[in-house]
Amino acid sequence: MQIAGHTFLITGGASGLGAATARRLAAAGANVAICDVAEEQGRKLARELGARADFFRTDVTDEAQVAGAVAGTRKKFGALHGAVSCAGIAPGERVLGRGGPHRLDTFRRALDINLVGTFNVLRLAAQAMEANTPDAEGERGVIVNTASVAAYDGQVGQVAYGASKAGVAGMTLPAARELARLGVRVMTIAPGIFETPMVAGFTPELRQALAAQVPFPPRLGRPDEFAALVEHIIVNPMLNGEVIRLDGAVRLPPK
């Protein structure tokens, strides 16, 4: 699918991986709908990107808000051709810690935002894409979800996060197989340790320790490297139904 002149909705689009994706797609000539709960940041980015960008306050767990963002995007730009889900949280809590067992509400919230929220966007975006006129290869849209290497080698304290991201990875192939009849592709990226707002709050010593775990390049991933992979997935029609680790060959230790 070409990027220029097409419209892409990005959740978690106000910062981090989502903001980098919005900037990169906009630079390639796309219309971008920035969806996030961080209203001030989101509106600021939309202003930065100009007339081909808009902001929609969106809680991905809320059916009405996601449906409203999809509808608003189509009304503003005429159609929806792609969706990139970057919204998520990364709670840390042990199954059995000093204070007792893992709180169920923490576990449920991680699944609700990371997994249910991603599926909520996927299903409503796919519905909108069904109305698109297919291109020469029969393609109507592309959906890119975000998992994590924690889906495969989650660390101590990441049981909720790892489970939620494993769910995102696990729904990739069945969703791609089902939506193939519409000409809608589904892909997932599993990033390693990236420079995100969460990591920015770490001490320099911890950031250095995390970077040292990456075989090559021995540093944290940059958001624009994530965005570059999103861009390639969009333009390469043979990428479908797969999870790509974007991690510099890192394999996380238990702790």
Strand-helix topology:
Layout: E1 7-11, H1 16-27, E2 31-36, H2 39-49, E3 53-57, H3 63-77, E4 82-85, E5 96-97, E6 100-101, H4 104-129, E7 141-146, H5 150-153, H6 159-170, H7 172-179, E8 184-191, H8 197-200, H9 204-212, H10 223-235, E9 243-246
Parallel strand pairs: 1-2, 1-4, 2-3, 4-7, 7-8, 8-9
Antiparallel strand pairs: 5-6
Helix pairs in contact: 1-10, 3-4, 4-6
Topology order in helix (H) and strand (E) letters: EHEHEHEEEHEHHHEHHHE
* Averaged pLDDT: 96
Give the % helix.
40-55%
Low-confidence stretches: none
For the record, give the distance between the C-alpha atoms at the N and C termini, rounded to a whole number. Answer: 41 Å
Give me the side-by-side strand order of the main sheet.
Answer: 3-2-1-4-7-8-9
Rg over CA atoms, rounded to whole Å, is 18 Å
Say how many strands there are: 9
**Count of individual helical segments:** 10
Summarize the structure.
The chain is of the alpha/beta class. It has 10 helices and 9 strands.
Structure description:
- Helix 1 (16-27) packs across helix 10 (223-235) and helix 3 (63-77) runs parallel beside helix 4.
- Strand 2, helix 2 (39-49) and strand 3 (53-57) form a beta-alpha-beta unit.
- The strands form 2 sheets. The protein has a 7-stranded parallel sheet, with helices on both faces.
- The longest helix has 26 residues, at 104-129.
- It is α/β, with parallel strands linked by helices and 255 residues long.
- The protein has helices at residues 16-27, 39-49, 63-77, 104-129, 150-153, 159-170, 172-179, 197-200, 204-212, 223-235; strands spanning 7-11, 31-36, 53-57, 82-85, 96-97, 100-101, 141-146, 184-191, 243-246.
- It contains 10 helices and 9 strands.
- The mean pLDDT is 96.
